[in-house]
Design goal:
The protein has 397 residues and is of the alpha+beta class. Helix content is 47%, strand content 15%. The chain has 3 domains: 100 residues, Acyl-CoA dehydrogenase/oxidase, N-terminal domain (Butyryl-Coa Dehydrogenase, subunit A, domain 1), CATH 1.10.540.10; 95 residues, Beta Barrel (Butyryl-CoA Dehydrogenase, subunit A, domain 2), CATH 2.40.110.10; 163 residues, Butyryl-CoA Dehydrogenase, subunit A, domain 3 (Up-down Bundle), CATH 1.20.140.
Length: 397
Protein backbone atom coordinates (compact mmCIF):
# COMPACT_ATOMS: atom_id res chain seq x y z
CA UNK A 1 0.00 0.00 0.00
CA UNK A 2 1.36 3.45 -0.92
CA UNK A 3 2.08 6.00 1.77
CA UNK A 4 -0.88 8.10 2.86
CA UNK A 5 -0.85 11.78 1.80
CA UNK A 6 0.40 14.07 4.53
CA UNK A 7 -2.18 16.25 6.29
CA UNK A 8 -2.32 19.87 5.24
CA UNK A 9 0.17 22.06 7.07
CA UNK A 10 -0.69 25.53 5.77
CA UNK A 11 -4.50 25.56 6.03
CA UNK A 12 -5.90 28.51 7.96
CA UNK A 13 -9.45 27.91 9.22
CA UNK A 14 -12.02 30.65 8.77
CA UNK A 15 -13.48 32.26 11.90
CA UNK A 16 -17.07 31.89 13.05
CA UNK A 17 -18.16 35.36 11.94
CA UNK A 18 -16.85 34.79 8.42
CA UNK A 19 -18.58 31.40 8.20
CA UNK A 20 -21.89 32.97 9.22
CA UNK A 21 -21.36 35.79 6.72
CA UNK A 22 -20.70 33.29 3.95
CA UNK A 23 -23.89 31.42 4.83
CA UNK A 24 -25.92 34.65 4.73
CA UNK A 25 -24.40 35.53 1.35
CA UNK A 26 -25.42 32.29 -0.39
CA UNK A 27 -28.67 31.48 1.44
CA UNK A 28 -31.01 33.60 -0.74
CA UNK A 29 -29.81 31.85 -3.92
CA UNK A 30 -30.32 28.48 -2.24
CA UNK A 31 -33.87 29.52 -1.39
CA UNK A 32 -34.47 30.64 -4.97
CA UNK A 33 -33.72 27.08 -6.12
CA UNK A 34 -36.49 25.60 -3.95
CA UNK A 35 -38.72 24.66 -6.92
CA UNK A 36 -35.81 23.04 -8.71
CA UNK A 37 -34.83 21.12 -5.59
CA UNK A 38 -38.38 19.85 -5.06
CA UNK A 39 -38.59 18.68 -8.68
CA UNK A 40 -35.22 16.92 -8.46
CA UNK A 41 -35.98 15.44 -5.03
CA UNK A 42 -32.36 16.33 -4.36
CA UNK A 43 -30.20 19.38 -3.73
CA UNK A 44 -29.29 21.15 -6.97
CA UNK A 45 -25.63 20.86 -7.91
CA UNK A 46 -25.33 24.65 -7.84
CA UNK A 47 -26.31 24.75 -4.17
CA UNK A 48 -23.85 22.04 -3.21
CA UNK A 49 -21.13 23.84 -5.17
CA UNK A 50 -21.89 27.09 -3.34
CA UNK A 51 -21.76 25.39 0.06
CA UNK A 52 -18.47 23.68 -0.78
CA UNK A 53 -16.91 26.84 -2.19
CA UNK A 54 -17.88 28.72 0.98
CA UNK A 55 -16.26 25.98 3.07
CA UNK A 56 -19.56 25.26 4.83
CA UNK A 57 -19.40 21.49 4.29
CA UNK A 58 -16.14 21.36 6.30
CA UNK A 59 -17.27 22.78 9.63
CA UNK A 60 -16.47 19.65 11.68
CA UNK A 61 -13.59 18.48 9.50
CA UNK A 62 -10.19 18.43 11.23
CA UNK A 63 -7.98 21.43 10.49
CA UNK A 64 -5.11 19.16 9.54
CA UNK A 65 -7.21 17.86 6.65
CA UNK A 66 -8.44 21.25 5.47
CA UNK A 67 -11.42 21.74 7.77
CA UNK A 68 -12.50 24.44 10.19
CA UNK A 69 -12.92 22.32 13.34
CA UNK A 70 -15.67 24.79 14.20
CA UNK A 71 -17.46 25.23 17.49
CA UNK A 72 -20.85 23.47 17.44
CA UNK A 73 -22.66 26.77 17.98
CA UNK A 74 -21.13 28.06 14.74
CA UNK A 75 -22.49 24.97 13.00
CA UNK A 76 -25.92 25.63 14.53
CA UNK A 77 -25.94 29.23 13.27
CA UNK A 78 -24.78 28.36 9.76
CA UNK A 79 -27.30 25.55 9.39
CA UNK A 80 -30.17 27.74 10.59
CA UNK A 81 -29.29 30.58 8.22
CA UNK A 82 -29.69 28.08 5.37
CA UNK A 83 -32.76 26.42 6.93
CA UNK A 84 -34.72 29.67 6.88
CA UNK A 85 -34.45 29.49 3.08
CA UNK A 86 -34.55 25.72 2.39
CA UNK A 87 -35.00 23.07 5.05
CA UNK A 88 -33.85 20.21 2.82
CA UNK A 89 -30.57 21.93 1.98
CA UNK A 90 -29.97 22.65 5.67
CA UNK A 91 -30.67 19.01 6.54
CA UNK A 92 -28.16 17.76 3.96
CA UNK A 93 -25.65 20.39 5.08
CA UNK A 94 -26.01 19.06 8.62
CA UNK A 95 -25.67 15.41 7.60
CA UNK A 96 -22.58 16.02 5.47
CA UNK A 97 -20.90 17.92 8.30
CA UNK A 98 -21.55 15.36 11.00
CA UNK A 99 -20.05 12.63 8.81
CA UNK A 100 -16.79 14.58 9.02
CA UNK A 101 -17.05 14.44 12.81
CA UNK A 102 -17.46 10.65 12.70
CA UNK A 103 -14.74 10.16 10.10
CA UNK A 104 -12.36 12.12 12.34
CA UNK A 105 -12.65 9.20 14.81
CA UNK A 106 -11.38 6.70 12.21
CA UNK A 107 -7.83 5.55 11.52
CA UNK A 108 -5.62 8.22 9.93
CA UNK A 109 -5.39 6.10 6.78
CA UNK A 110 -9.17 6.29 6.36
CA UNK A 111 -9.13 10.07 6.78
CA UNK A 112 -6.29 10.32 4.26
CA UNK A 113 -8.20 8.17 1.77
CA UNK A 114 -11.09 10.66 1.83
CA UNK A 115 -9.41 14.02 2.35
CA UNK A 116 -5.79 13.45 1.36
CA UNK A 117 -6.30 14.33 -2.31
CA UNK A 118 -9.51 16.35 -1.98
CA UNK A 119 -10.09 18.26 1.28
CA UNK A 120 -13.59 19.14 0.03
CA UNK A 121 -14.63 15.47 -0.38
CA UNK A 122 -18.08 14.64 1.01
CA UNK A 123 -19.35 11.59 2.88
CA UNK A 124 -22.95 10.43 3.26
CA UNK A 125 -24.17 7.70 5.59
CA UNK A 126 -26.70 5.17 6.71
CA UNK A 127 -25.77 3.78 10.11
CA UNK A 128 -28.60 1.26 10.25
CA UNK A 129 -26.81 -2.02 11.04
CA UNK A 130 -28.48 -3.94 8.21
CA UNK A 131 -25.31 -4.88 6.36
CA UNK A 132 -24.33 -8.54 6.09
CA UNK A 133 -20.76 -8.75 7.30
CA UNK A 134 -18.26 -11.59 6.97
CA UNK A 135 -14.68 -11.65 8.21
CA UNK A 136 -12.01 -11.69 5.49
CA UNK A 137 -8.23 -11.50 5.48
CA UNK A 138 -7.32 -7.97 6.51
CA UNK A 139 -10.89 -6.79 6.82
CA UNK A 140 -14.48 -7.71 5.98
CA UNK A 141 -16.81 -8.35 3.08
CA UNK A 142 -19.99 -6.31 3.15
CA UNK A 143 -23.36 -6.63 1.44
CA UNK A 144 -26.72 -4.99 2.00
CA UNK A 145 -29.22 -2.29 1.22
CA UNK A 146 -29.23 0.81 3.39
CA UNK A 147 -32.04 3.36 3.31
CA UNK A 148 -32.24 7.12 3.87
CA UNK A 149 -28.71 8.18 2.87
CA UNK A 150 -29.30 11.93 2.61
CA UNK A 151 -27.08 13.75 0.14
CA UNK A 152 -25.68 10.50 -1.23
CA UNK A 153 -25.64 11.69 -4.84
CA UNK A 154 -23.16 14.44 -3.94
CA UNK A 155 -20.79 12.28 -1.86
CA UNK A 156 -17.78 10.30 -2.96
CA UNK A 157 -17.91 8.02 0.08
CA UNK A 158 -20.48 6.47 2.42
CA UNK A 159 -20.42 5.35 6.05
CA UNK A 160 -22.54 2.19 6.30
CA UNK A 161 -23.62 0.18 9.34
CA UNK A 162 -23.29 -3.49 10.15
CA UNK A 163 -22.71 -5.72 13.16
CA UNK A 164 -19.61 -7.68 14.13
CA UNK A 165 -18.91 -9.74 17.27
CA UNK A 166 -17.12 -8.07 20.15
CA UNK A 167 -13.62 -9.61 20.40
CA UNK A 168 -14.02 -10.43 24.10
CA UNK A 169 -17.71 -11.08 24.72
CA UNK A 170 -18.86 -12.15 21.28
CA UNK A 171 -21.87 -9.84 21.58
CA UNK A 172 -22.91 -8.09 18.36
CA UNK A 173 -21.75 -4.47 18.20
CA UNK A 174 -22.25 -1.70 15.68
CA UNK A 175 -19.41 -1.30 13.21
CA UNK A 176 -19.25 1.49 10.64
CA UNK A 177 -17.73 0.79 7.22
CA UNK A 178 -16.22 3.53 5.05
CA UNK A 179 -16.94 2.69 1.41
CA UNK A 180 -15.90 4.55 -1.78
CA UNK A 181 -18.53 5.56 -4.33
CA UNK A 182 -17.31 3.04 -6.87
CA UNK A 183 -18.21 0.15 -4.56
CA UNK A 184 -21.94 0.84 -4.22
CA UNK A 185 -25.00 1.83 -6.22
CA UNK A 186 -27.62 4.44 -5.34
CA UNK A 187 -31.27 3.52 -5.89
CA UNK A 188 -33.63 6.42 -6.60
CA UNK A 189 -36.53 5.64 -4.24
CA UNK A 190 -37.00 8.90 -2.31
CA UNK A 191 -40.49 10.40 -2.78
CA UNK A 192 -41.82 11.89 0.51
CA UNK A 193 -44.34 14.67 1.18
CA UNK A 194 -41.77 16.81 2.98
CA UNK A 195 -37.97 17.11 3.02
CA UNK A 196 -38.29 16.14 -0.63
CA UNK A 197 -34.99 17.61 -1.74
CA UNK A 198 -32.74 15.71 0.67
CA UNK A 199 -32.14 12.95 -1.89
CA UNK A 200 -32.32 10.37 0.90
CA UNK A 201 -32.07 7.39 -1.41
CA UNK A 202 -30.99 3.79 -0.82
CA UNK A 203 -27.44 2.46 -1.08
CA UNK A 204 -26.74 -1.09 -2.28
CA UNK A 205 -23.46 -3.02 -2.03
CA UNK A 206 -22.79 -6.65 -2.90
CA UNK A 207 -19.84 -8.55 -1.47
CA UNK A 208 -17.41 -5.64 -1.40
CA UNK A 209 -14.15 -5.84 0.55
CA UNK A 210 -13.55 -3.23 3.25
CA UNK A 211 -10.11 -3.26 4.91
CA UNK A 212 -10.03 -3.17 8.70
CA UNK A 213 -8.59 0.36 8.74
CA UNK A 214 -11.68 1.65 6.92
CA UNK A 215 -13.97 0.40 9.70
CA UNK A 216 -14.67 1.58 13.22
CA UNK A 217 -16.73 0.49 16.21
CA UNK A 218 -18.20 3.47 17.99
CA UNK A 219 -18.95 4.07 21.65
CA UNK A 220 -22.65 4.73 22.42
CA UNK A 221 -21.99 8.43 21.90
CA UNK A 222 -23.91 9.72 24.92
CA UNK A 223 -20.96 10.62 27.16
CA UNK A 224 -17.89 12.72 26.45
CA UNK A 225 -14.59 10.87 26.07
CA UNK A 226 -11.62 11.51 28.36
CA UNK A 227 -8.41 12.92 26.92
CA UNK A 228 -6.49 9.78 27.85
CA UNK A 229 -8.76 7.72 25.60
CA UNK A 230 -8.95 10.22 22.72
CA UNK A 231 -6.10 12.75 22.61
CA UNK A 232 -6.38 15.69 20.27
CA UNK A 233 -8.85 18.51 19.66
CA UNK A 234 -11.67 18.88 22.19
CA UNK A 235 -14.34 18.80 19.46
CA UNK A 236 -13.76 15.08 18.92
CA UNK A 237 -14.14 14.24 22.60
CA UNK A 238 -17.71 15.58 22.70
CA UNK A 239 -20.44 12.89 22.60
CA UNK A 240 -20.61 12.13 18.90
CA UNK A 241 -24.27 11.03 19.05
CA UNK A 242 -25.37 14.39 20.48
CA UNK A 243 -23.76 16.32 17.62
CA UNK A 244 -24.86 13.72 15.08
CA UNK A 245 -28.47 14.05 16.23
CA UNK A 246 -28.17 17.83 16.38
CA UNK A 247 -27.47 17.77 12.65
CA UNK A 248 -31.05 16.59 11.99
CA UNK A 249 -32.72 18.55 14.80
CA UNK A 250 -31.12 21.99 14.99
CA UNK A 251 -32.20 22.93 11.45
CA UNK A 252 -35.80 23.04 12.74
CA UNK A 253 -34.98 26.32 14.51
CA UNK A 254 -34.15 28.06 11.24
CA UNK A 255 -37.05 26.35 9.45
CA UNK A 256 -39.50 27.51 12.10
CA UNK A 257 -38.01 31.01 12.02
CA UNK A 258 -38.58 31.13 8.26
CA UNK A 259 -42.18 29.98 8.79
CA UNK A 260 -42.73 32.64 11.43
CA UNK A 261 -41.40 35.41 9.18
CA UNK A 262 -43.67 34.29 6.33
CA UNK A 263 -46.65 34.00 8.66
CA UNK A 264 -46.11 37.51 10.01
CA UNK A 265 -45.86 38.88 6.48
CA UNK A 266 -49.13 37.20 5.57
CA UNK A 267 -50.92 38.18 8.78
CA UNK A 268 -49.92 41.82 8.41
CA UNK A 269 -52.10 42.21 5.33
CA UNK A 270 -54.62 39.36 5.43
CA UNK A 271 -58.33 40.12 5.78
CA UNK A 272 -60.78 37.22 5.75
CA UNK A 273 -63.08 37.44 2.73
CA UNK A 274 -65.83 35.74 4.74
CA UNK A 275 -65.73 37.45 8.10
CA UNK A 276 -63.81 40.61 7.39
CA UNK A 277 -61.52 39.72 10.29
CA UNK A 278 -58.14 41.49 10.10
CA UNK A 279 -55.50 38.89 10.97
CA UNK A 280 -53.21 41.30 12.79
CA UNK A 281 -56.11 42.04 15.17
CA UNK A 282 -57.13 38.39 15.61
CA UNK A 283 -56.23 37.13 19.14
CA UNK A 284 -55.64 33.59 17.87
CA UNK A 285 -53.26 34.77 15.16
CA UNK A 286 -51.14 37.02 17.36
CA UNK A 287 -51.02 34.37 20.11
CA UNK A 288 -49.85 31.68 17.67
CA UNK A 289 -47.06 33.93 16.43
CA UNK A 290 -45.97 34.78 19.96
CA UNK A 291 -45.94 31.12 21.03
CA UNK A 292 -43.69 30.08 18.15
CA UNK A 293 -41.37 33.04 18.66
CA UNK A 294 -40.96 32.15 22.33
CA UNK A 295 -40.42 28.45 21.57
CA UNK A 296 -37.79 29.17 18.91
CA UNK A 297 -35.89 31.25 21.44
CA UNK A 298 -36.22 28.55 24.10
CA UNK A 299 -35.11 25.68 21.86
CA UNK A 300 -32.15 27.66 20.52
CA UNK A 301 -31.07 28.59 24.04
CA UNK A 302 -31.36 24.94 25.06
CA UNK A 303 -29.05 23.81 22.25
CA UNK A 304 -26.45 26.39 23.20
CA UNK A 305 -26.68 25.70 26.93
CA UNK A 306 -26.40 21.94 26.44
CA UNK A 307 -23.36 22.22 24.18
CA UNK A 308 -21.75 24.50 26.77
CA UNK A 309 -22.40 21.85 29.45
CA UNK A 310 -20.76 19.17 27.31
CA UNK A 311 -17.82 21.44 26.45
CA UNK A 312 -17.32 22.20 30.13
CA UNK A 313 -17.00 18.51 30.93
CA UNK A 314 -14.50 18.07 28.09
CA UNK A 315 -12.48 21.08 29.29
CA UNK A 316 -12.36 19.68 32.83
CA UNK A 317 -11.74 16.16 31.48
CA UNK A 318 -14.64 14.81 33.54
CA UNK A 319 -17.24 12.43 32.14
CA UNK A 320 -20.77 13.77 32.25
CA UNK A 321 -23.19 11.74 34.37
CA UNK A 322 -25.48 9.29 32.60
CA UNK A 323 -28.59 10.95 34.01
CA UNK A 324 -27.58 14.42 32.87
CA UNK A 325 -26.57 13.12 29.45
CA UNK A 326 -29.96 11.47 29.03
CA UNK A 327 -31.74 14.68 30.00
CA UNK A 328 -29.84 16.58 27.32
CA UNK A 329 -30.79 13.91 24.81
CA UNK A 330 -34.48 14.14 25.76
CA UNK A 331 -34.40 17.88 25.10
CA UNK A 332 -32.61 17.37 21.80
CA UNK A 333 -34.89 14.66 20.43
CA UNK A 334 -38.03 16.56 21.46
CA UNK A 335 -37.16 19.83 19.76
CA UNK A 336 -38.39 19.17 16.21
CA UNK A 337 -41.79 17.95 17.38
CA UNK A 338 -42.25 20.94 19.66
CA UNK A 339 -41.59 23.38 16.84
CA UNK A 340 -43.58 21.41 14.27
CA UNK A 341 -46.65 21.46 16.53
CA UNK A 342 -46.58 25.25 16.74
CA UNK A 343 -46.12 25.71 13.00
CA UNK A 344 -49.09 23.36 12.62
CA UNK A 345 -51.17 25.95 14.49
CA UNK A 346 -50.42 28.43 11.70
CA UNK A 347 -51.98 26.17 9.10
CA UNK A 348 -55.41 26.55 10.67
CA UNK A 349 -55.12 30.34 10.66
CA UNK A 350 -54.07 30.95 7.06
CA UNK A 351 -57.37 30.14 5.41
CA UNK A 352 -57.67 28.28 2.12
CA UNK A 353 -54.41 29.76 0.82
CA UNK A 354 -52.61 27.96 3.60
CA UNK A 355 -52.80 24.69 1.67
CA UNK A 356 -50.91 26.06 -1.34
CA UNK A 357 -47.55 24.30 -1.65
CA UNK A 358 -45.96 27.52 -2.84
CA UNK A 359 -46.58 29.11 0.58
CA UNK A 360 -43.35 29.33 2.63
CA UNK A 361 -45.37 28.42 5.73
CA UNK A 362 -46.75 25.30 4.07
CA UNK A 363 -43.29 24.31 2.88
CA UNK A 364 -41.85 24.63 6.38
CA UNK A 365 -44.80 22.75 7.88
CA UNK A 366 -44.44 19.80 5.50
CA UNK A 367 -40.68 19.68 6.05
CA UNK A 368 -40.99 19.71 9.84
CA UNK A 369 -43.71 17.06 9.77
CA UNK A 370 -41.44 14.84 7.66
CA UNK A 371 -38.36 15.50 9.78
CA UNK A 372 -40.10 14.62 13.04
CA UNK A 373 -40.62 11.08 11.70
CA UNK A 374 -36.87 10.41 11.80
CA UNK A 375 -35.96 8.08 14.71
CA UNK A 376 -33.40 10.64 15.86
CA UNK A 377 -36.22 13.12 16.37
CA UNK A 378 -38.43 10.70 18.27
CA UNK A 379 -38.06 11.30 22.03
CA UNK A 380 -39.60 7.94 23.01
CA UNK A 381 -36.34 6.04 23.51
CA UNK A 382 -34.56 8.89 25.29
CA UNK A 383 -37.57 9.50 27.53
CA UNK A 384 -37.61 5.82 28.48
CA UNK A 385 -33.89 5.78 29.21
CA UNK A 386 -33.95 9.01 31.19
CA UNK A 387 -37.00 8.06 33.21
CA UNK A 388 -35.68 4.59 33.97
CA UNK A 389 -32.39 6.06 35.17
CA UNK A 390 -34.22 8.51 37.45
CA UNK A 391 -36.43 5.84 38.97
CA UNK A 392 -33.49 3.46 39.31
CA UNK A 393 -31.54 6.03 41.32
CA UNK A 394 -34.49 6.41 43.71
CA UNK A 395 -34.74 2.66 44.08
CA UNK A 396 -31.10 2.46 45.15
CA UNK A 397 -31.45 5.22 47.75
Amino acid sequence: MSASPAPLSSFAPVGADMLRARARAIAPAIGARWDEAEALRDIPAASIAALREAGLTRLFQPQRWGGHEADPTTFFDVQNIVAAQCASTAWVLGVLNVQSLVLALFDDRAQAAVWGQDPAALVSSSFMPVGKVAAAAGGYTLSGRWSFSSGASHAGWALLGGRTPHPDTGAAELRIFLVPRGDYAILDVWNPFGMRATGSNDIVANGIFVPEWRTRTLDPGLLNVLKIHRPGPALYRLPWLYLFSAGIANFAIGTARGALDAFLDRAASRVSAWSGQVSREDPATVAAAARLDAEIDLVEASFRRNVAILQDHVARDVVIGQGEAMRLRVQLTSSVRRLAALVDDFMMLLGARGIDRSSPVTRAWLDLCAARAHPGNDPAASLAGSGAAMIGCRGQA
